Amino acid sequence: MQSQSPFLAGFSEIEFTPQPGLPLLGQMHQRIATGARDPLMCSGVALRQNEQTVVMVAVDIAMIALPEIIPLQEQWHQQTGLSESTLLIHATHTHDAPAAFSELMEMADVDFVTHLQRAILQCALDALAKLEPVEVFSGCGHMEHMGWNRRAMLEDGSSAMYANSETPGFIGMEGPRDPALPVLFCRNMQGKITGILLSFATHPNSIESATVYSADVPGEVRKNLKSTFGRDVGIVYLTGAAGNTAPSILDPYDASHPWRGEEGLLRSGLYLAGEAAKVIASSYTPIPFPALEFKQIFLRIPLRPWPQEEDPTYPRAPGNSYYERAEKDWPQYLKTNSPQEVRVNIIRIGDTVICTNPAELFVEFGLQIRDASPARVTFISQLTDGYIGYIPTEKAFNRGGYETWCAPSSKMDVSTGRKIVDATIELLGELWKG
Predict the structure, then answer these.
(1) Number of structural domains, the chain?
(2) How far apart are CA 246 and CA 204, in angstroms?
(3) pTM of the entire predicted model
């Protein structure tokens, strides 16, 4: 496959940190931001080759749902003439930013959501305006540490988030981790690196219980990469399939939590950025024919009914108002919200591919996609183009635990993970025909 026209890329950044005082989304208890540790950012990349254009904006929030995304995509079409589908919005999943919609534990502030939407759209437009001819490089690093599976199996047949090898009844971790660190970067015609994309499969939450705004791990990675490659280099951090992975070492249990807290955050940013820099230094041959192709599938997948009390997925959280409200409202919630639109997107750049989904996808599904991918380098980007909650494996559903407890944060049919994997593999097959 030979490229018939130059490959163009443009990178942009827009800060959207609000004033202190808004509640932070990401914990079961309310936290009010007293200030900002570091800025919340939109980080955009625009790609164009021949007649194809795709723009991705990574946003430092926990998640953003389709009702907040669709108006942005409509405005994008009106202002650029490009299809609505060519604008993809990714949530990095920091737990230290305000809510972008009101379906979960915290109510979204209307003014903040409006401010956020304007920042996302402007970031996308700025990236488009900065398109220039580039050479594209990619490679994949290996993260020996960070991103550990956070679900421990217990001998009573259950699994528990953050149980560990010192927990009574511990028999092992439920699933694997994904050590891959795919990296893509662009050099302009003057040989300068203009932007870097990277993806890693962990909840990026070293300081998830903080009471300040923070991009958490993605922000520290950006800071370190900019210190190495230049403050004007665009850094787009994509969180991989991380529904059941986190910065905690649980087997063998490490009580010092080296990847948690302020010290752990600094270590995480340095470690991830250092491995990405190693990939960049060793990737000296550009992708030979970086033809840009884009495909997507919109699936329609039902929500699951509310479980019986003996079911492992019945919430084991007595007195928790979030689950009590969910159980009470579930009949109406099913009528209003089922089936869900599930958008699966594929961006091919020569021998490299970015596979997106709107889930907190369990790492097992990400590994299945990577194993089946014909690409030399495969990115996984969860929480992109919507939000459908946790997508556990069948094994996890049978064992229960937080990520499986029925609520708006874990609502999809048990078949959803397999359908996302199958749809992704189908699109990969279409893009690699012949």
Answers:
(1) 1
(2) 7
(3) 0.97
